Amino acid sequence: MKHVLIALNPSKDKDGLILYNVISKVSHEFEGVKIKVLNSYELASNEIDDDIDLVIVLGGDGTILSVARDINGYKDIPILGVNIGNLGFLSSVEYGELESSLKKIKKGLYSKQKRILLQCNNGEKSNVLRALNDVVIARGTLSRIIKFDIYIDKKLYISFKGDGLIIATPTGSTAYSFSAGGPFIYPDVDVVTITPICPHTKAMQPIVLNSSSVIEIKVDNNNEEIYLTVDGQKVIKKEDDEIITITKSEHYAEIILLDDYDYFNVLRKKILYNSEKEEGE
């Protein structure tokens, strides 16, 4: 590693001690490495050097989601997520494991897993939104139910009424989609899912599609409030009868996984058993 970018969520490290320790460990493990530090909130407005070998993300799942969106399009920049937040499901390692993880990376004991990104476009090429987890179309808090017409590759799939829709990647299948009844999808499977939010008909069920599918959604909200949300972070108010088009992005997020990474262990520990604990509280 010659050039490393550290993307820090400053709200998770207000005194800067974690950042100081991470810089020290990276410098010790990779002699002569050049380190650049950027605030994760401002990453999109900063130019990222093409020669970056690794992005170390310090934060939680939300920080990884935002960084993955902001650096996508840059050539082959893998992400090492270091959890200093709460859940940390998307993180590659916990903060306490960083030193041993860097040693493994130095020895080549890791792999790079490509994760698909969704692209949401309203016909305006200059206003493309991308998502690592999901795109959600849902009514406002006090709005009436919404009518959706869903087209897949120009063919009508279904028309239904409900509170909203979740279009998720495999990475996002463990997030909002899971809460709404959608299936778990292994992270590197090349598919997307559509999961309804509180449908008013049993005919509308979650569906798994090839990621090459073009999904078009016409929304009839009777002039009530409706919002499009990307990864639970970016929110845009939509207009009545607007057609929302969602496709797979040509870019990927590249996540570093160490040789002992066990997806099912992480799934049990941070999603399945964690959900059971919350239900029992």
From TrEMBL:
<feature type="active site" description="Proton acceptor">
    <location>
        <position position="61"/>
    </location>
</feature>
<dbReference type="GO" id="GO:0046872">
    <property type="term" value="F:metal ion binding"/>
</dbReference>
<dbReference type="GO" id="GO:0051287">
    <property type="term" value="F:NAD binding"/>
</dbReference>
<comment type="similarity">
    <text>Belongs to the NAD kinase family.</text>
</comment>
<feature type="binding site">
    <location>
        <position position="144"/>
    </location>
    <ligand>
        <name>NAD(+)</name>
    </ligand>
</feature>
<dbReference type="GO" id="GO:0019674">
    <property type="term" value="P:NAD+ metabolic process"/>
</dbReference>
<dbReference type="InterPro" id="IPR016064">
    <property type="entry name" value="NAD/diacylglycerol_kinase_sf"/>
</dbReference>
<protein>
    <recommendedName>
        <fullName>NAD kinase</fullName>
        <ecNumber>2.7.1.23</ecNumber>
    </recommendedName>
</protein>
<feature type="binding site">
    <location>
        <begin position="133"/>
        <end position="134"/>
    </location>
    <ligand>
        <name>NAD(+)</name>
    </ligand>
</feature>
<keyword id="KW-0521">NADP</keyword>
<dbReference type="InterPro" id="IPR017437">
    <property type="entry name" value="ATP-NAD_kinase_PpnK-typ_C"/>
</dbReference>
<feature type="binding site">
    <location>
        <begin position="174"/>
        <end position="179"/>
    </location>
    <ligand>
        <name>NAD(+)</name>
    </ligand>
</feature>
<feature type="binding site">
    <location>
        <position position="233"/>
    </location>
    <ligand>
        <name>NAD(+)</name>
    </ligand>
</feature>
<dbReference type="Pfam" id="PF20143">
    <property type="entry name" value="NAD_kinase_C"/>
</dbReference>
<feature type="binding site">
    <location>
        <position position="163"/>
    </location>
    <ligand>
        <name>NAD(+)</name>
    </ligand>
</feature>
<dbReference type="InterPro" id="IPR017438">
    <property type="entry name" value="ATP-NAD_kinase_N"/>
</dbReference>
<dbReference type="InterPro" id="IPR002504">
    <property type="entry name" value="NADK"/>
</dbReference>
<dbReference type="GO" id="GO:0003951">
    <property type="term" value="F:NAD+ kinase activity"/>
</dbReference>
<keyword id="KW-0808">Transferase</keyword>
<keyword id="KW-0418">Kinase</keyword>
<dbReference type="GO" id="GO:0006741">
    <property type="term" value="P:NADP+ biosynthetic process"/>
</dbReference>
<dbReference type="GO" id="GO:0005524">
    <property type="term" value="F:ATP binding"/>
</dbReference>
<feature type="binding site">
    <location>
        <begin position="61"/>
        <end position="62"/>
    </location>
    <ligand>
        <name>NAD(+)</name>
    </ligand>
</feature>
<dbReference type="Pfam" id="PF01513">
    <property type="entry name" value="NAD_kinase"/>
</dbReference>
<keyword id="KW-0547">Nucleotide-binding</keyword>
<keyword id="KW-0067">ATP-binding</keyword>
<dbReference type="GO" id="GO:0005737">
    <property type="term" value="C:cytoplasm"/>
</dbReference>
<keyword id="KW-0963">Cytoplasm</keyword>
<feature type="binding site">
    <location>
        <position position="161"/>
    </location>
    <ligand>
        <name>NAD(+)</name>
    </ligand>
</feature>
<keyword id="KW-0520">NAD</keyword>
<comment type="function">
    <text>Involved in the regulation of the intracellular balance of NAD and NADP, and is a key enzyme in the biosynthesis of NADP. Catalyzes specifically the phosphorylation on 2'-hydroxyl of the adenosine moiety of NAD to yield NADP.</text>
</comment>
